[in-house]
Description:
Layout: H1 4-17, H2 21-28, H3 33-40, H4 47-80
Amino acid sequence: MELLEEAKKVVSRMHGLYDSPVKEIMERTELSRPTVSKFFNLEKVRPSSEETIYELCLDLIEAKETKRKALVARSKEILEN
């Protein structure tokens, strides 16, 4: 895995944000559970699969963080009024 240090951070972040990150990736791609599991276990997968999973993980992390920030802002707005 070329992006090993970055992949470690992404995998850790996905586990912190999603109950079942492997299932989340599988549902959004045509990749098999073993392939996605290998990525999350930091094992070697095809470069094209690695890129697909890595990019999707970044997209999902970004979406979840954006949603959380909006929720915090909404909560502050509602509770302060």
